[in-house]
């Protein structure tokens, strides 16, 4: 590969980095700013032929983008205007992250994760401020920070705890900083009072240690986690009061799941678009909430068997690529991080659908963009060169 970089290429590389850093920072800003940034980013990508080619070069990218965008029409068919908007916004987020994937490198990815770690601390400060402020004029049991809902904030913080753990092992020189980020994330999870987030981050940490072969850490953390869980459920309800309400929460979820199953039977093949549960719960006398509180039920409810099948097919193909990269030693550390985040998304998804949100979904897909890592240096290439899959290009990019 030619070591000389043309002025045009160098300028493109700078624009790519600015685009990447702004995308990361926007995730930790108030959610309406995040949404605006993703829409602006998608417009920036799609209005340029070369950037559009980079974003859509990987196999199945066009398929999943077309499918997600198409469900805006399904939503409109049932006058699900909220669902139509979410479909278009999700399409924008996917397009932005696919573009990031096209020029991602290990060095850039680690820098982006460090920026995310630093930015995440500000959200904890905001959460603390919310609790303190409302303590004086009333009460606020659960902080939501920059997110729309405390549960969304909880998932964002569980992602950050795992990312900080990943960076702590990869960059031991700054382990104290990453330890601060982990503590900050755990404080955020406590302030949003999400039992699901606490359980997911615990399971994810164990899974991370297991995949990294850190068995001593695995068993020590497992013992600490079991003791903490027992304490939260028994002798320390004052410290974690929502733990004593677990039975009531589960009863609510059982009611929600039953309602979702009734909705699935009603529109089995195509669903009625995102946020279908909010449209149908009154029809079936179900519990009033926004979604099905189960990632798999909610996906089938929203997209039907056909849409859920397309989403599932894309997810499985991406997991296979990640596993193949790990086996071949290609950016295996980021592959492990991707698997752990997917794992905790599924764990949390058993009782909630918090990944279907602009900030949590963008953070997950930002980590997913690491699937495009091919070399240690950022390289701007022509669309013709990026045609085909990441695995097909690795030998060409390998230093």
Features:
399 residues; disordered N terminus; mainly alpha
Descriptive overview:
- This protein has one domain.
- It is about 70% helix and about 0% strand.
- The protein contains 16 helices and no strands.
- Helix 7 (about 150-170) packs antiparallel against helix 8, helix 7 (about 150-170) runs antiparallel to helix 14 and helix 13 (about 295-325) runs antiparallel to helix 14 (about 330-350).
- Mean pLDDT is about 85; it is low at about 1-10 and about 375-399.
Question: What's the gist of this structure?
Answer:
Residues 1-8 and 375-399 have low confidence and may be disordered.
Structural class: mainly alpha
Structurally, the number of domains stands at 1
Rg, nearest Å: 21 Å
Tally of helical segments: 16
The main sheet comes to:
none
Terminal residue distance? 9 Å
Mean pLDDT equals 87
Q: Give the CA-based shape.
A: globular
Give start-end ranges of low-pLDDT stretches: 1-8, 375-399
Work out the strand percent.
under 5%
* H-E order: HHHHHHHHHHHHHHHH
Number of E-type strands = 0
Proportion of helical residues? over 70%
Chain-wise SSE layout:
Layout: H1 7-27, H2 31-46, H3 49-56, H4 61-77, H5 81-103, H6 106-137, H7 150-170, H8 175-192, H9 195-211, H10 215-233, H11 246-266, H12 276-280, H13 295-327, H14 332-349, H15 358-368, H16 390-397
Helix pairs in contact: 1-2, 1-6, 2-5, 3-5, 4-5, 4-13, 5-15, 6-7, 6-8, 7-8, 7-9, 7-14, 7-15, 9-10, 9-14, 11-13, 13-14
């Amino acid at each position: 590969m030619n070591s000389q970089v043309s002025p045009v290429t160098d300028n493109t590389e700078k624009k790519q980095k600015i685009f990447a850093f702004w995308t990361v920072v926007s995730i930790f800003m108030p959610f309406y700013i995040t949404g605006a940034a993703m829409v602006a980013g998608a417009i920036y990508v799609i209005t340029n032929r070369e950037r559009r080619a980079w974003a859509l070069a990987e196999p199945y990218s066009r398929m999943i983008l077309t499918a997600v965008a198409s469900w805006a029409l399904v939503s409109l068919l049932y006058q699900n205007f909220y669902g139509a908007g979410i479909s278009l916004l999700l399409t924008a987020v996917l397009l932005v992250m696919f573009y990031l994937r096209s020029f991602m490198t290990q060095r850039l990815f680690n820098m982006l994760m460090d920026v995310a770690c630093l930015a995440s601390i500000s959200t904890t400060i905001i959460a603390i401020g919310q609790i303190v402020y409302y303590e004086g004029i009333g009460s606020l049991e659960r902080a939501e920070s920059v997110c729309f809902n405390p549960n969304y904030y909880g998932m964002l913080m569980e992602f950050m705890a795992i990312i900080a753990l990943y960076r702590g092992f990869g960059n031991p020189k700054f382990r104290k900083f990453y330890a601060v980020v982990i503590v900050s994330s755990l404080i955020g999870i406590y302030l949003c009072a999400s039992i699901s987030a606490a359980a997911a981050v615990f399971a994810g940490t164990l899974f991370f240690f297991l995949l990294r072969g850190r068995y001593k850490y695995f068993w020590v953390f497992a013992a600490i986690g079991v003791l903490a869980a027992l304490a939260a459920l028994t002798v320390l309800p004052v410290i974690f009061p929502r733990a004593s309400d677990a039975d009531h929460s589960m009863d609510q979820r059982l009611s929600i799941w039953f309602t979702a199953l009734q909705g699935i039977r009603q529109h089995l093949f195509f669903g009625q678009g995102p946020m279908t549960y909010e449209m149908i719960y009154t029809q079936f006398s179900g519990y009033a909430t926004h979604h099905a509180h189960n990632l798999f039920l909610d996906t089938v409810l929203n997209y039907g068997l056909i849409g859920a099948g397309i989403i599932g097919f894309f997810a499985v193909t991406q997991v296979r690529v990640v596993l193949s990269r790990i086996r071949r030693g290609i950016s295996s550390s980021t592959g492990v991080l991707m698997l752990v985040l997917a794992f905790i998304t599924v764990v949390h998804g058993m009782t909630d659908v918090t990944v279907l949100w602009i900030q949590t979904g963008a953070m997950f897909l930002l980590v997913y963009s690491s699937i495009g890592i091919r070399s240690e240096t950022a390289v701007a290439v022509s669309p013709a060169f990026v045609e085909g899959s990441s695995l097909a290009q690795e030998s060409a990019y390998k230093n």
